[in-house]
Amino acid sequence: MAGRKQFDMDTALDAAMIQFWRDGYADTSVDDLSRATGLNRSSLYSSLGAKDTLFLRCLDRYAARYGEKYDAALSGAASDPVAAVRAFFDVTLQRIADPELPDGCLIAQSAMAIPALSPSVAEHARQALGLQRRRLRAALKAGRLTDRDADAFAVHAAAVNQSLAVMSRAGASPAQLLAIVGVTVDALAQAPRA
């Protein structure tokens, strides 16, 4: 039928997300996005928006997709915060090990690119990064850590989580990544409960 969109929006958004994830915001051109989605430039703009708009949609899509998995992993924190944080890291390690996905993390990559991003996109990347810390803090508070320890471990675990993505992109082995997680989980196991 004339005038009807002949593509699947979810498929196109996933393709754009993977393109940004693989090459980063600055190194992804509109032509790259056109090739990845299978849409010509005018269809890309009319259906998905300009590059900044599309990037924000992809960042939100990524944050929601993995955010749900992180929330599920942390849901048992009230009864066992150490197991919940280990499950949180397992989400990241499984994503890293998935051969269908690019190395690293779209949020970590975006945070590192903040100087090259427009102010609104940079702020969005900061918010996505901050959400992970807030998610961890809430779980650790539910696990009865003191306010001070919940804050400190949330910042630390979020930083470790982002570093796993960076390290994987740099070629760290799964055993090395698991060892990094082990140090954090062991430290958390020693934290006093309120």
TrEMBL record:
Residues 6-66 form the HTH tetR-type domain. The keyword DNA-binding applies. GO terms for molecular function: DNA binding. Pfam families: TetR_C_13, TetR_N. Keywords: DNA-binding, Transcription, Transcription regulation. Residues 29-48 bind DNA. It comes from the Bacteria. This is TetR family transcriptional regulator. It comes from Streptomyces griseoviridis.
